[in-house]
Q: What sequence folds into this?
């Protein structure tokens, strides 16, 4: 199978040939390290014989009061050195809302929640010790359904919600299970429904999902005798972790300068290693045991039930449209099963509440996105950050409305697709978008309108096309920074704290610096961060680091270039406006023979006529913050702020073959066209599309977290929670790159990582309907559901 | 617990050790030998991140006891780095940007080495079958399969 990469052939786009490094299919700068197994991940680091091991004591109940904890038997076990409980750490922590406890306080709120932890000389002793800690519980009736949790009679998961500190754009409803309610109101939806010729109302259901990064979470903490805390974490967010650690450990007098977070390569993130989850235990245990490094590794089951999960959601949608195909109004209510703690997950709910209109121009809009506490594991960030979840219902509904209106569903989307300058749900204006181009290209690629027949008479072929959009969800002042330093031979080190989580950040940063400084990528080293040495980056989430960190690197490179030009101007008396860089040298427009190689001066300076040296080591500094962003809007309408920096848009298409008897599905062709503004490295964008789509298809075809009536996860392993193998690949994936430049992006780039899995669920549901006229409204759309629906038809 | 004396070859080097009978080969390699290419992903044979070659055959080292290595030849990616066929595979993996986070890479490389050693002309479906025990969450497998296919003899 051959992959085709298509480029936009529009005049607006700068031609590829204008660039040396940007827009090129370069090989990854971390390629050889990973292929030779030289790459080190957190659990690969060595700490010597002083290393201690920890294990967690976990709640067997979804909701219970802790009556008593008896640690005496555990302390008698050979090798056990210490048992730490909530009494030692009565502190809350959280990213957007401080509602999570280091160890459960007097209440456990999900099965698997940490109640205590045991520190021991060996992993075996730690596990034995954890099993020997006796906890008396008084079981309570758990809250397991987000809609029932809204009932006035429902128990409250958090009775003290009103006291929890949170960011100003959250609106907790005291005395209820609603931790945050994002309301977005635009236009007059009552009037909009009156103008409609057709109104369609329905409910869709999305379950919880697990990230399933192959590397489990791991942390090593060392609180040394001088009071310095060093944390080695498998993390997408070293600086955010440092800040959250400070927030939780403040009572110990530990400040930012005292904490150092070191992040190695990480074995997959997908949002699951953003923020702080189990790492808080590593920090707390280290602080409680001065002078010895302590390691905590999550096993695969813990990875499923005590990190973050993608939240489940029940979505109720009402859409009105005219017979000409114009959407006149949309009412969308999302009841999120946010889990026991929502310190991060509430922002997923917020993001969806701002953008659940999808990439459509809808003048009359009412969105209610409710973050509801339940006694299930904490929800949190997962690739797509709420957009996959609302898109399932929305894009299923788009096809169904088109059918009602007797309009072609692709035409229906083209009529309503958002354009540059359109008013967004919260009142700001839409950035440049190539969504129409993306729709047309996907339409052509899947031969939309041409009915295909399977060679097997028991099989039908269905097609679908859906649109998507997504914006980074981040605080308005989330920022990036970069240092660039030259070495003697003219090579570069780039220091950033954007994380390499597989997406290729290090390579893309090298390409951006290479473009400005004309140093080949092969002479640039970029490494994973250490918060003491690398400059600040908020987090590597939201598909925003190519844009944010890329802007910082570009500015750092420009700063270094400026320093070079200043120096050459000073020494050679050449006007710096005549200088330019080419092939690792400084050149001059007015003096064709002038060539000063970087290796001749970037460290040791330029020798002047009097034999003295001028200059010194060349370094560049760059920072970036989206200074136009603001998260503050009207709480009742969401109007007035500018919470989202930009949206990446696109369209995806599917050709799906389905067995009419078994419901078994085979993806014949999957197509995704995404407007990433500018593909800094098209091959890496292609990698995001192919990988992200398979992850997305898995959520709709078979993945599904199952909980029993007690709130216990019953499939926390890869035997019972199947993720795709090589045998589950689609027959063909066609990635299409659209490039409508983002004005404030580095070389026009905007994010692309998450977007590639967002459209997959409605693609499958709509293709199933196209083939068999059965509509599945709850994810996953498994072969069993399809077969049963056909059977009962 | 009584320990057992074992002797085996690890990446071409003779090893003598005394191990507890319940210790997994994975734990022994990582924490006793300092061999870090086999990774801990699931510890129950599902993910393939801990794959090593045992007498030329891939095994999940989390499911093999260290005592079972007695008398065997164990090769990890550290050792396979010197193998010509592995090197050819690695070159193609690099050209294709075949891995993203890289955590599954050592296991995939050994599965691919085993396949092309036994079946140098392996076709696409055989390749998918051979690496179907190595889970990768990032890439969608396509560039990995492409690279192995490019390395296989036509």
A:
């Amino acid at each position: 199978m051959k992959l085709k990469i298509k480029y936009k052939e529009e005049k607006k786009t700068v031609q590829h040939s204008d660039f040396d490094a940007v827009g090129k299919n370069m090989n990854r700068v971390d390629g050889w390290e990973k292929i030779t197994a030289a790459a080190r991940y957190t659990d690969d680091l060595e700490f010597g014989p002083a290393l201690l091991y920890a294990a967690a004591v976990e709640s067997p109940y979804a909701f219970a009061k802790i009556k008593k904890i008896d640690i005496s038997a555990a302390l008698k076990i050979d090798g056990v050195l210490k048992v730490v409980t909530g009494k030692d750490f009565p502190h809350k922590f959280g990213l957007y809302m401080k509602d999570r406890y280091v160890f459960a306080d007097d209440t456990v709120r999900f099965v698997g929640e940490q109640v205590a932890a045991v520190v021991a000389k060996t992993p075996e002793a730690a596990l034995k010790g954890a099993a020997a800690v006796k906890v008396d519980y008084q079981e309570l009736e758990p809250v397991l359904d987000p809609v029932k949790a809204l009932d006035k009679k429902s128990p409250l998961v958090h009775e003290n919600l009103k006291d929890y500190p949170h960011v100003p754009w959250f609106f907790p409803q005291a005395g209820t299970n609603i931790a945050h309610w994002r309301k977005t109101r635009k236009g007059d939806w009552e009037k909009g429904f009156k103008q409609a010729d057709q109104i369609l109302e329905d409910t869709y259901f999305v379950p919880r999902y697990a990230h399933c990064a192959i590397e489990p979470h791991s942390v090593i903490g060392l609180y040394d005798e001088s009071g310095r805390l060093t944390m080695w974490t498998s993390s997408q967010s070293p600086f955010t972790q440092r800040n959250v650690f400070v927030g939780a450990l403040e009572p110990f007098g530990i400040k930012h300068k005292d904490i150092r977070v070191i992040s190695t390569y990480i074995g997959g993130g997908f949002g699951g290693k953003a923020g702080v989850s189990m790492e808080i235990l590593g920090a707390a245990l280290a602080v409680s045991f001065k002078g010895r490094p302590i390691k905590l590794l999550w096993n695969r089951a813990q990875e499923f039930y005590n990190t973050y999960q993608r939240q489940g959601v029940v979505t109720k949608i009402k859409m009105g449209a005219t017979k000409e195909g114009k959407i006149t109004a949309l009412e969308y209510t999302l009841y999120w099963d946010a889990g026991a703690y929502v310190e991060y997950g509430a922002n997923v709910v917020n993001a969806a509440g701002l953008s659940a209109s999808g990439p459509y121009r809808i003048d009359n809009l009412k969105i209610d996105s409710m973050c509801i506490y339940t006694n299930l594991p904490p929800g949190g960030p997962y690739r797509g950050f709420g957009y996959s979840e609302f898109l399932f219902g929305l894009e299923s509904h788009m096809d169904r409305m088109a059918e009602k209106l007797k309009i072609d569903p692709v035409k229906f989307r083209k009529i309503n697709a958002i354009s540059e300058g359109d008013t967004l749900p919260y009142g700001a204006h839409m950035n440049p978008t190539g969504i129409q181009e993306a729709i047309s290209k996907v339409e052509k690629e899947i031969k939309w309108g041409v009915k295909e027949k399977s060679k097997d008479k028991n099989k039908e072929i269905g097609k679908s096309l859906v649109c998507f959009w997504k914006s980074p969800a981040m605080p308005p002042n989330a920022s990036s920074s970069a240092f660039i330093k030259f070495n003697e031979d003219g090579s570069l080190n780039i220091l950033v704290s954007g994380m390499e989580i597989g997406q290729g950040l290090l390579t893309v940063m090298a390409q951006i610096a290479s473009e400005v400084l004309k140093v080949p990528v092969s002479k640039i080293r970029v490494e994973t961060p250490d918060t003491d040495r690398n400059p600040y980056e908020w987090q590597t989430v939201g598909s925003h680091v190519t844009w944010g960190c890329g802007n910082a690197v570009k500015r750092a490179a420009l700063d270094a270039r400026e320093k070079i030009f200043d120096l050459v101007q000073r020494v050679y008396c050449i006007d710096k406006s005549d200088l330019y860089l080419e092939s690792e040298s400084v050149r001059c427009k007015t003096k064709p023979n002038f060539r000063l190689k970087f290796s001749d001066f970037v460290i040791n300076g330029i020798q002047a006529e009097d034999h003295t040296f001028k200059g010194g080591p060349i370094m560049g500094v760059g920072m970036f913050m989206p200074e136009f962003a603001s998260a503050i809007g009207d709480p009742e309408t969401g109007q007035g702020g500018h919470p989202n920096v930009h949206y990446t848009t696109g369209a995806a298409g599917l050709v799906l073959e389905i067995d009419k008897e078994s419901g078994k599905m085979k993806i014949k062709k999957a197509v995704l066209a995404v407007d990433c503004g500018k593909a800094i490295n098209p091959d890496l964008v292609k990698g995001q599309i192919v990988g992200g789509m398979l992850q997305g298809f898995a959520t709709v075809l078979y993945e599904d977290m199952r909980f029993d009536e007690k709130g216990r996860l019953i499939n926390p392993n890869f035997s019972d929670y199947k993720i795709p193998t090589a045998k589950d690949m689609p027959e063909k994936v066609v990635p299409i790159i659209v490039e409508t430049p983002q004005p404030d992006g580095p070389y026009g780039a905007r994010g692309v990582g998450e977007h590639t899995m967002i459209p997959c669920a409605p693609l499958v549901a709509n293709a199933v309907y196209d083939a068999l006229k059965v509509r599945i409204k709850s994810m996953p759309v498994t072969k069993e559901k399809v077969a049963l629906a056909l059977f009962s038809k | 617990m009584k320990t057992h004396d074992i002797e085996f070859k690890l990446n071409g080097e003779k090893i003598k050790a005394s191990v507890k009978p319940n210790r997994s080969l994975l734990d022994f390699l990582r924490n006793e030998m300092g061999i870090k290419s086999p990774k801990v992903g699931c510890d129950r044979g599902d993910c393939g991140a801990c794959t090593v070659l045992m007498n030329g055959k891939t095994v999940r080292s989390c499911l093999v006891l260290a005592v079972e290595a007695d008398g065997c030849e164990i090769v990890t990616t550290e050792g396979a780095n010197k193998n010509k066929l592995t090197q050819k595979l690695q070159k193609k993996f690099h050209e294709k940007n075949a891995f993203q986070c890289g955590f599954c890479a050592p296991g995939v490389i050994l599965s691919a080495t085993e396949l092309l050693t036994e079946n140098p002309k392996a076709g696409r479906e055989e390749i998918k079958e051979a690496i179907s025990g190595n889970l990768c969450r990032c890439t969608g497998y396509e560039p990995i399969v492409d690279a192995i296919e490019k390395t296989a003899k036509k």
Observations:
- The domain at 312-475+631-791 of chain A is CATH 3.30.365.10 (Aldehyde Oxidoreductase; domain 4).
- Residues 545-572 of chain A form the longest helix (28 residues).
- DSSP finds 16 helices and 30 strands in chain A.
